[in-house]
Design a protein that fits this description.
Layout lengths: L17 H12 L4 H8 L3 H11 L2 H6 L6 H13 L4 H7 L5 H21 L9 H28 L14
Helix pairs in contact: 1-3, 5-7, 7-8
InterPro entries: Homeodomain-like_sf, Transposase_14, Trp_repressor/repl_initiator, WH-like_DNA-bd_sf
Protein name: Transposase
GO molecular function: sequence-specific DNA binding
């Protein structure tokens, strides 16, 4: 049965024959992009996702995005902050799709560090307490600015931070 030779529609969800649905799933699992399959079969995004959930095999389950534990996220954030990995390298190494994900992990890691810094006892008064207080204040300001940028990026769905190697604006 070809795509155009479909059984009569019996209900809202019975528009496409099961063989057509399975063919769409097979194409996605073989490596064709979901967008190309949606265009080829003329279905919506959610329809194809539902077909993949229902008719997909173990191949599809492995193709889905990877889940990371909190410890793994902190480790990756630490590698980024220490300069051991660039964002692009981290995306490739950990099979991630968006730099935004990495930035969120780094922001969460920094926030946890700030909490640890505030929980530490203050240094003795005679060993540069004013400098330590200024340093703490500057760290809080930096964290607040990073949080503000993260929120603006999430709200407006744009990347605000400059990319490495970006040309300076005029």
């Amino acid at each position: 049965m070809t795509i155009n030779e479909q059984a009569p529609r019996r209900s809202k969800n019975a528009h496409y024959a099961i063989s057509v649905r399975q063919e769409a799933v097979r194409l996605v699992e073989s490596g064709l992009s979901q967008q190309a399959v949606r265009q080829q079969f003329g279905v919506g995004h959610m329809t194809l996702l539902a077909w993949l959930e229902r008719y997909g095999t173990a191949v599809y389950a492995q193709m889905r995005r990877k889940q990371f534990t909190a410890v793994q996220k902190q480790h990756i954030a630490r590698e980024l902050l220490d300069g051991r990995l660039s964002e692009d390298e981290a995306l490739l190494q950990y099979e991630l799709r968006l730099k935004k994900t990495l930035r969120q992990w780094v922001a969460a890691y920094r926030a946890s560090e700030v909490l640890l810094l505030t929980a530490e006892p203050d240094p003795p008064a005679d060993t540069g307490a004013p400098l330590a207080a200024q340093l703490r204040q500057a760290q809080w300001q930096i964290e607040a600015l990073h949080t503000l940028i993260d929120q603006a990026e999430a709200t407006y769905k744009i990347d605000i931070r400059k990319k490495a190697g970006a040309k300076p604006s005029k």
